[in-house]
Amino acid sequence: MFDHSIIDYEWKAQLHRSLGWVTARCDNRLVGFVNVAGDGGVHAFILDMIVALTGGAAASPRN
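RESULT FIELD:
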């Protein structure tokens, strides 16, 4: 669905910076997600955005 191979990546190393995950769904199917991370202070930012190729405009946060 996301059209890439599985990556051997140490996700657990990121968890202490992660504030949570935001998912995008279309017709109850997962079409994307992002990791919301923080700097330990007042800033938060988006990392690791993944969007399914088949999600189309329905996966856009503007819809």
